[in-house]
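To close the section, here is one more complete example, presented without commentary so you can practise reading it yourself. The ligand is flavin-adenine dinucleotide.
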Amino acid sequence: MVPHTLQVHAGIASPLLHHEVPREQHSVWSSHYDEGRLTHRSARTITLAHWADQALQQYHHIEALSGISFYTPCGTLNLSASSDGFSYTKQRYLIESALNFRYVDYSAEQLAHTYPMLSRSLPYHGLYDAPPSGMIHPRRMVAAQLACAAHHGAIHHDDVVTRITPHHDFVTVETALGHEYKTQRVIVAAGAYSGLSSLLPRSLDYTIKSEIVTLGEISSDTATFLSNMPTMMIDCQNNIIEDAYLTPPLRYPDGKWYIKLGSNSVDDVFFDSATALRQWILHGDTHRTHHAQIALLRSLFDQLDWISFRSLPCVITRTPHGLPFIERLHPRLTAVVGCNGSLAKSGYIVGTIAVDTMAAGCDAPVGQ
Ligand SMILES: Cc1cc2nc3c(=O)[nH]c(=O)nc-3n(C[C@H](O)[C@H](O)[C@H](O)COP(=O)(O)OP(=O)(O)OC[C@H]3O[C@@H](n4cnc5c(N)ncnc54)[C@H](O)[C@@H]3O)c2cc1C
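Output:
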């Protein structure tokens, strides 16, 4: 991590954590306010697979330096009707050779034998991406990054930025609490909100998409029974949802145990203002997707006793090329935006590239 004299906000892609505001009171929501994120080498492009692989190698180091654990190397199981049809595993042979590992193939029969928690006779082939793939706890990962950044001399200001103005010799950063900072360089990594406030000198071609997750509540005994479960990605054959993913049981802040399943949906909507996004986060209509997600959970785990189900409206960003924009928009301002719903795991690498981009492009003396 590189020391910065000023960090006013932070997400996964930047090193510091800001205080999390409750859903009802937020002015800027986040893509990472959750208990679990999948981390795996399967990806739609080799670049993304490399980033994930490099990030996976950093987790233990960040845990050791910060004293905060956030990583569970439980493996990731890909479930798909055909092994080469799923967007995440279509490039399996290229990924295997580039990253020097081998997936484990499971027929439908072998799946049932190896993963007793799964329903019998699922219409899927399995491709297992063994540890180091698995799961991260995103809130704890950001807290660990925050601790590492502080260790390197960073100062954290917990505030919402309302305007950033780059000048020839410096940048001004104005905040909701009425502060005005002058700094030498800025990296904007404000997730969906990067282009919705006055933070960037010009717009970037990213879209803001709704994402829905369903939390399936189980008992602590069931959670114990499932303690060896991998994270899973499911190429489900369904007319409402696709590209589903789920985590093993996680204990949420309400003290209950949930399996979390998310997916894309035919009902996904896009936002072009902070007001519309706020409305979605607070009151988004998740009904149809929620029921399709419950049906998928029940079909995958037909022996489990479910206690309850609830859905949560979330947000992700997308770019036309599937990679984030990591761009110097001004000699003193670099933006990182468009993580395409899959880069919590690679935040360390994305952040490092952003810092290098900023440093390489800085025409003026910096560092004061
Ligand atoms: C439901 C869901 C499931 C996902 N699953 C996975 C997964 O399994 N694996 C994976 O790798 N990725 C996953 N992702 C994607 C991942 O969470 C995002 O790629 C990642 O969080 C993006 O990081 P970011 O820092 O760009 O944005 P964010 O995580 O959104 O962080 C941006 C931060 O900036 C803050 N902010 C915004 N505006 C301001 C402002 N004006 N002033 C101050 N602060 C501001 C926000 O509050 C936030 O804290 C998932 C996302 C969702 C929603």
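Once you have examined the tokens, check your reading against these statements. The two ends are 18 Å apart (CA to CA). The pocket of flavin-adenine dinucleotide is lined by residues 8-9, 11-13, 18, 28, 30-32, 37-38, 160-161, 189-191, 193, 197, 211, 213, 245, 262, 314-316, 339, 341-345 (CB under 6 Å).
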